[in-house]
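Check out one such.
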Amino acid sequence: MNLHRLARDGVVLLAFGLAFYLVTLLIQYLGSGEAESMAQEVSFDRRQAEQLYNEKNWVQSAVHFERLVQDDPFNGHAWFFLGYSYNRQQIPFYTLVNRELRRTTPDPQKITQWNDQLKVAMQRAVPPLIRATDFPRYRNQARFMLARMHAYHGDRDMALQYLSEALQDGFISNYKGGLANGGIFEFRQIRDTEEFRQMVNWEKENHLLRRRSR
């Protein structure tokens, strides 16, 4: 009688263990399928974002980078290039403003209209670029872009603050001749200030430090 009971209990225990094992496998299978589906969705947006970025389709690349940061708020790459895509949408308006300013009699109404469009693009670019400063890999490039936009729109203090933070962190612009050559037109309103001249010297020091470290 005891042997019969022990055998019966053993069979029940074995069946319970087998059922638990099968349920665990099923959960893992369903979970992996969901994770794979999410990964495919994210990778699709990543591929689209990178492709459109390479094609310089800034409007559509921003759409996909926006989806990436929604899926993963800790994706520093996506935050930076979302801000970069919005920032690049300003270029046509910069071109129009500069072209108009070179005319004998510039039209202030047109310039104001284009600057309003620039402000809209800037308002979209600033939040993701600020978020990108949380990630060391993109921090100084984001600061540099923020400095340029604030300088162009006359916010001198913010421009100098972001530029100072980037340079004191070792940043070097990729412009030939650096900050001193005058090629970064957004800085024209702060170029003659003592603070900007100090930052030109900081960039030169960063160049020397980098050369010595090689």
Observations:
- The two ends are 85 Å apart (CA to CA).
- Helices lie at 2-54, 58-71, 76-88, 91-101, 108-132, 139-152, 156-168, 194-213.
- DSSP finds eight helices and no strands in the chain.
- Residues 164 and 198 are 9 Å apart (CA to CA).
